[in-house]
Structures are given as structure tokens and as C-alpha cells.
Design brief:
The chain has helices at about 1-25, 35-55, 65-75, 85-90, 145-155, 170-180, 195-200, 215-220, 260-270, 275-280, 290, 300-310; strands spanning about 25-30, 55-60, 80-85, 105-120, 135-140, 165, 185-190, 205-210, 225-230, 245-255. By secondary structure, the protein is α/β, with parallel strands linked by helices. Strands 1, 2, 3, 4, 5, 6, 7, 8, 9 and 10 form a 10-stranded mixed sheet that branches. Helix 2 packs across helix 9.
């Protein structure tokens, strides 16, 4: 009888320790600006993951990719949404992170496409990326990930920034400038369809330029964080056919300090809760284990790797 009591007490104590441990864990998630997709998507996912894993998740509005990587490096957050190209720069200490190599994080999962869209007026006569030489082109905010995307895409077409009238405007300001004929084209890297482009298309006939197979392949060989991406027909007013371009992807990264079990639970519940996440935010529809591991150049956390190997997404 005493032996049984000891076993029961030991089991209860073990359960109590596990429960206390679980309650003591907390995930702080860095997203983006409070009006952006990162914040809205992160808030939806955070609530669901907290419910499923029983680990509290708090969501923070931040300056997005670069700031989020720095927050993880400073141990101020444990989970963050970033562009996979920006995390590649941080891991290698190049471009946006020139001379500042950061390896205190791992990949957890690719989430959804952030599409490289090159927008022109239909009346401009511009029909190819090659036609942008000598044109007034907005390439996103100075020093932004978009500016690096624009430089890389133009480069594979043999165009340098010195060969365009480069302007550094936000997406909304770029749309206004195109509407007012102050620029000929602009780069926008965001989930598609993008509100700024939707709004522009209501008042101007626009085109999204294609990135052809040969140049897409060249770009991906140089920068493996890109993937080919077709913008579906009808995404914007007047767009009657799909347009092939490339995309980077919004990606969950995690601190290397998180335990394998915690990251495993976060990854597993992320994908097993797809229907619930999709009901909360449209970008949940793009969750896919196969897509989650494609174009990711930073090593996966062992906990995420365990899940992807279990389901056969990584061999």
C-alpha cells in the first residue's frame, strides 16, 4: 500500500512540476507595425498557439524584420516574423546587416509569400523589367528589404540603380506618385493582393511586370531565398491572366535558447491548427509544411526539424 501511495505521489509531483514548468514558460512574439499583416497574422496565430500549447504567447508591434532579429539577439523576444531574405542577410552578416552577423536564431517555418510586384501604368508602354532602364522607379524605403529586392531583380536584367531615376518611397506614396504620373513604376514586396495596389487599380489601369523563367532561375541561383510565384488572374482590377514573378516569404524564426520540445510543440500546433488559423486570418490559407521548408537558407531549430522529419517534409 505504501508503495502504491509513493508511486501516486511521485506521478502527481511529476505532473505538478510539468504543469508549473509549462505555466512558467512564455513566448514573446515580435511582428510588425500595428496596421500591417505581420501584426494581424501574428496576433491570430499567437492566440491559437497559446490555446493549443498552454504556453502564454504575447504579441508585440515592432519595426518588422530587421528589428525583430535584433530583438531576438537581445533576448527581448523568443519568436518573430521576418522576411526570409532579411534573415539570410543577418545570418551571413551582409547587406542590411553588413558587418553585423547574427546567429542567435533558427528558422521555425515559412508562412506565406511576400510577392515581389513591379507595378506600372498600362499606358506607359513598359511591358518588361528590361524596359525600366532610364525610367523613374520607386524601389521602396531607403535601406529597406524592398530596396535590396529591387537591386537584385534589376541586376539580373542588367540594370543598375544608376541607370534608373531611383526614388525611395513607401508603398502608399509610390502608388500616389504613379497615379500622379510622377514615377513610371514601383516595386512592392508584400502579400498579394496588396491594399495599396488594389486601391491604385481602382483609378488607374495598371500592369504587374512578369519575371520570366530564365531571369527567375538566375535570381534564385544567386539568392536561394527567392521562389517563383504566380500572381493569380483577377488579383487586381483588369488583370486577366496570371503573372509570374518571384517571392520571398514571411517566416517564423525562434531564439536558439528555446527548448527543442517547446519549438516542436509550436511547429506541430501551427500546422495542425491551419483551419482555425485560416478562419482567423486569410494568410493562414497558405500554411503548408512543404512550402514552409522551401527557400529557407538559415538552419531549422532542432524542434522544428523534428516535426518536419516526422511528417516527411524534410528527409
Amino acid at each position: 500500500m505504501k508503495k502504491i501511495i509513493v508511486i501516486v505521489l511521485a506521478a502527481l509531483l511529476s505532473f505538478g512540476i510539468a504543469a508549473c514548468k509549462n505555466r512558467s514558460e512564455q513566448i514573446r512574439m515580435a511582428t510588425g507595425g500595428s496596421t500591417g499583416t505581420y501584426y494581424a497574422f501574428g496576433t491570430a496565430v499567437g492566440q491559437i498557439l497559446a490555446e493549443k500549447t498552454k504556453i502564454p504567447v504575447t504579441v508585440q508591434s515592432t519595426g518588422a524584420s530587421r528589428a525583430n532579429i535584433q530583438l531576438i539577439n537581445a533576448s527581448e523576444v523568443e519568436l518573430a516574423i521576418v522576411q526570409n531574405d532579411v534573415m539570410d542577410y543577418a545570418w551571413r552578416g551582409v547587406d542590411l546587416f553588413n558587418g553585423e552577423q547574427i546567429t542567435s536564431f533558427n528558422s521555425m517555418a515559412g508562412l506565406y509569400a511576400e510577392v515581389c510586384q513591379i507595378v506600372v501604368s498600362a499606358a506607359s508602354g513598359i511591358r518588361s523589367v528590361a524596359d525600366l532602364r532610364g525610367k523613374e522607379v520607386s524601389v521602396g524605403d531607403a535601406g529597406s528589404g524592398v530596396e535590396f529586392n529591387a537591386r537584385q531583380i534589376l541586376d539580373v536584367y542588367g540594370i543598375t540603380f544608376e541607370q534608373i531615376g531611383k526614388q525611395n518611397l513607401s508603398f502608399a506614396a509610390s502608388a500616389d506618385a504613379l497615379r500622379d504620373n510622377k514615377i513610371d513604376a514601383f516595386f512592392c514586396v508584400a502579400g498579394s493582393p496588396t491594399p495599396a495596389i488594389i486601391d491604385l487599380a481602382t483609378s488607374r489601369d495598371i500592369l504587374i511586370l512578369e519575371i520570366d523563367d530564365a531571369n527567375a532561375a538566375r535570381l534564385i541561383s544567386l539568392y536561394p531565398f527567392y521562389t517563383k510565384y504566380p500572381i493569380p488572374a483577377g488579383s487586381y482590377r483588369g488583370q486577366t491572366a496570371a503573372v509570374q514573378t518571384v517571392a520571398v516569404k514571411a517566416t517564423f524564426i525562434v531564439s536558439t535558447k528555446l527548448s527543442d520540445d517547446t519549438v516542436y510543440q509550436l511547429t506541430k500546433n501551427l500546422f495542425e491548427s491551419k483551419a482555425q488559423i485560416e478562419a482567423a486570418h486569410i494568410k493562414g490559407s497558405e500554411l503548408s509544411p512543404a512550402y514552409a521548408v522551401e527557400g529557407i537558407s538559415v538552419p531549422f531549430h532542432p524542434g522544428a526539424l523534428k516535426y518536419f522529419r516526422e511528417i516527411g517534409a524534410i528527409r
